[in-house]
Amino acid sequence: MTQTLNDIRDNIVKIIDENNNFLGTGFFFKRGYCITCHHNIARADKIFVTRDNKKLFAAEWLEEYSDPRIDLAILRVRKSIFKPLEVRTETYHDIDVVVWGFSDEELAHFPSGNHVEGHLAKVSCPIQWNKEMIAGKRKWNVKPEVNVNVIKFDGSFKVGYSGAPVCYAGDWTVVGIFEAKDENSAYIIPTDIVFDRSGIRAKMIMPSSGFNIQYVMDKAWQYLNNGEFSKAIRYYDKVINDPRYLDAWTNKGAALGDSGKWHEALACFDYVLKYRPDASYLWYNKALSLLHLGRLKEAVCLFDKCLQLDKENAEALANKANALFELGKFNESLTCANKALRIDPNNATAWNEKGLNLDKKGRFKKAIECFDRALKINPKWAWIWSNKGLSYLHQGDKDQAILCFDKALSIDSGNAGIWSNKAIALVEINKTKEALKCVSKALELDPLDAKNWEVKAIVLFHSEKPREAKKYEMKAEKLRKLKRMKLEPISSYISE
After folding, report:
1. Under 8 Å between Cβ of 271 and 249
2. What is the CATH number of domain 413-496?
3. Which of 432, 472, 481, 478 is nearest to 453 (CA)?
4. Which end of the chain offers a freer environment for a tag, N or C, measured as fewer CB atoms within 10 Å?
């Protein structure tokens, strides 16, 4: 979830009474649940929330969740149309914040509310309001003594902003509730006090784990999108034991896959499929895991399962083309790639697979055109640069091939396969010393790939070292044999 300042503006509400009098500001932190300051509603007989004063929503005061002693009111709005805002549950000090709220004197000019910028003090401080007797028959018609640790707000404001969300100016998550004691002093009730970790309100939005699950999920998603997979996995691990959060298992599987841990990823997807057998994206993720594990026939079957549920899934078709290509079924692979491109002409994977198949058929110029289409969509995909280089190599343009491999390595210098491909191109132009350096780098990065040992054998053979070449050829064959037997390679097979 990425929250914007517009989300804040569009989802704050006015708290009004039965006579349409403006009382203060509120916001939703969960679907159907609104939060505001208790002093806003203390004198009201009935409570409503609205955005525009045309459509009113009746609000029910929830005594078990509210706490007038810390100036907190929780309201239930049963037919709410308002989007909940993302809330953090840590205490923040000494940061820039934005408050968006309503006030009587500004409503004519700012019917959607207005925002002010300010800064939170470096330390918390206690605030105390004296008890005040209020005439009224409702349970909320009380103003008890308030004594709570708050954070002083430094900035301009209006009294009507009380109850407004206070947002961290870095990512617009809510870090507190605005509380104007009078026209000259304002404070922030921190969200860690509002959603205390031991009380009943904690259970309301933090069902079983003692922390804000949605925040943890959002944080994990943020790390996943940033490519920080180990951090994402740690956050998903915090919530995967709660069966209500199956998405944590799914996203953890994605993070594990992106980290190259496909066996563990597969286990995550299998777990969620027990509960969501009709979810096409899960069959796709499982198929993708099997593809990366080299279980190609199983992968094809599961891509088909995904496509039964979602016929227009271009990514599933493109990756099915990949599996079929690796199985040597080039005509079927090309058909799949073309189907994917009819659905999504901007699918880089499908253009890459079409290019590979055309290269295999000896149509190198057309293959290069396909790789160029893929690179126009995703110019940072190192493997496509490498595949383009191989097509140049196959049509005899070795210099262009090396330029493509160099471009690929500038994007991903840790890719062993590309180092091996460059080594082959260098052998073709009799630069065996440079080729040997490249293949040695490939073996350093991935000593378990038989192809790297085979390429080293080729380089040594062209260096007129046939005995050494034979030794590396035998190592490559032993690794292939272990792969066919589905055994893990052991060090004796790969040691120098």
Report:
1. yes
2. 1.25.40.10
3. 472
4. C
Classify domain 5-204 by CATH number: 2.40.10.120
- Can you tell me the distance from the alpha carbon of 275 to that of 167, in angstroms, rounded to the nearest whole number? 37
The arrangement of strands across the sheet holding 12-17 comes to 57-58, 47-50, 12-17, 22-30, 33-37, 72-76, 60-61
Nearest to 88 by CA among 219, 208, 178: 219
CA distance 405 to 50: 61
Comparing C-alpha atoms, which of 211, 219, 282, 199 is closest to residue 241?
211
The pLDDT of residue 53: 73
Total-model pTM: 0.56
pLDDT of residue 208: 35
**Residue 434 clears pLDDT 80, i.e. is over it:** yes
Mean pLDDT of the chain: 85
Query: For the chain, which residues make up each domain, given as ranges?
Result: 5-204, 413-496
pLDDT of residue 372: 97
Residue 174 CB neighbour total at 10 angstroms: 24
pLDDT of residue 243: 53
